[in-house]
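Notebook entry, structure prediction.
Reason for the run: the old model in the group folder had no record of what sequence produced it. Starting over properly, with the input documented here first.
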Amino acid sequence: MKHIKFLIIILVYTSLFCCKNDNKKDVEITEDIIKSETSSNCPKYILDQKKNNLNISVLLDLSDRIEETKIKQKDSAYLSSLAKSFVAHVQHKKLVLLEDRIQLFFNPEPSDEKINDIAKKLKVIFTKNTAKDQIEETISLYKTKPSKLYDLAKLDAQKAGGYPGSDIWRFFKDDIKDYCIDNCHRNILVILTDGYMFYDKTVMKEKNRTSYLTPKSLNQLQLNKSNWKDEIEKKDLGFIPATIGLNDLEVLVIGIASHNDENNYAQDIIEVYWKKWFDEMGVKKYKIKNADIPSSIEKVISDFILKA
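New structure, fully documented this time:
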């Protein structure tokens, strides 16, 4: 009888020991999964679809460039094309996998609350609970609202006695990572600008690098010769990097324009400035286009968004 009791004790102990080890393994696996999902701030099934989850941000340059009626018309058409590509992407996804968004930013923030209200309406988030009519409404929003936004921005500038400029440099330094980059998504920033950067509260110079570029400052560089690119490299001209580590961001810049009768290479110089800036900040993919007709830019936008 004693032998039987001893045998039972051994069996129970062995069983408990095995269960303890199995539970330990289960805990370790669970903790790894939780740790993985916590670090990414999204469920695994969403993270697995990262490249298919669009997080599109639009940064509008509301400087004096928008004084021209044709700029407002072109920008509105560009934004309409962007919305079409965004919706086309969403419509090809299964409803349960919807995790896509598009939003609008300015820097500095306009003083007119009506402008900010329009921006809020243009912030669209699609999830598995999104109704079909909400998806289709996005195209309508981006077709009609931007034009009203530009009209309000012009009135705002008239009341203020002039345009404050657009602080694109500071947006990259202070806001880009918080506002435009999410590790559960494919992050795309679309910038509508003529390529010049200036804001009176962000005027910095470090040797031959600056936080700004204007038609006047470009002329002072004396680059109106065929060897202008060599001179840029030799003198290390360019923008001061505003940040680093933007490897999880793609950038599409639309609207580059010369506005300069004194330098035949102005547009090319502007593009090189931006390319150098993106490279030094670690942007993994970018494209820079001039202010072409909307029908041509529509294909550029579609290819950039839909052909990852």
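Summary: Residues 49 and 181 are 16 Å apart (CA to CA).
The old model has been moved to the deprecated folder.
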